[in-house]
Amino acid sequence: MDIQGFVIAILPIALSPGASFTLALSNVAINGMKGAFKVLIGTGLGIILHGLLVGLGISNVLNKSQVVMNSLQIIGIAFLLWLGLKLVTSGMKLLHHKMEFTASDVSVKQAFLLNIFNAKAIVLYLTVVPIFAGSSLSSYLLLATTHVIIMALWILIFSLMFCFAKEKLKVNIISAIINIVGGGCLLTMSCHSALNYYYQ
């Protein structure tokens, strides 16, 4: 197992603003730091499950079925699209003062499902992780845990910074902007994924 090589390879992926990052900041805008923890727990469980499935060889079996992989990708795109629309709608309502600040945030289950159906996460754990993990299940779980720790630290740092900044600004406006921009990012990701799926 090459944990140092894995950390170097995973850093750009874990630190790039993706769906989990967007959802965490949106949750922080709505419910403070406890909102970020929901996304971290859901995403972390998803990453660990990917590591477990690849370590057991189950993901490799699923990858050989084009129908299964296509189904997972379509479900993932639809789920990402739904979350994006949910964030944009929530942001628009906050912006027009049509809802109280106690808007619903993304749950642990939703963050988990988003990660499980994320085609990029599946491909990452099928292609990149085996290079560094070797053949032991414990190695896959250790690398997945390392991935979770890096992702969690990064999201927590930004969430804390956002919490401090939010206190000095108008909460509804900041929350609305985060939700609209974040939802727009998720919608863009879902459209990009749909186009990639269509043209592959």
Which secondary-structure class do the elements indicate?
mainly alpha
What's the gyration radius in Å?
17 Å
- Major β-sheet annotation: none
Helix/strand order: HHHHHHHHHH
How would you state the average pLDDT, rounded? 79
Number of helices: 10
Assign an overall shape.
Answer: globular
N-to-C span: 33 Å
Number of domains: 1
How many beta-strand segments?
Answer: 0
Q: Residue ranges: pLDDT <50 for 5 or more in a row?
A: none
Main location: membrane
GO molecular function: amino acid transmembrane transporter activity
Pfam families: LysE
Membrane topology: Multi-pass membrane protein
Protein described:
GO terms for molecular function: amino acid transmembrane transporter activity. The chain is mainly alpha-helical. It contains ten helices and no strands. The longest helix has 31 residues, at 137-167. The chain is globular, with a radius of gyration of 17 Å. The model has no long low-confidence stretch (mean pLDDT 79).
List keywords for this structure.
200 residues; mainly alpha; 10 helices; 0% strand; amino acid transmembrane transporter activity
List the helices and strands and how they pair.
Elements: H1 3-15, H2 19-31, H3 33-56, H4 58-63, H5 66-95, H6 108-116, H7 119-127, H8 129-133, H9 137-167, H10 171-199
Brief sketch in words of this structure:
This protein has 200 residues and is mainly alpha-helical. It has ten helices and no strands. It is 84% helix and 0% strand.
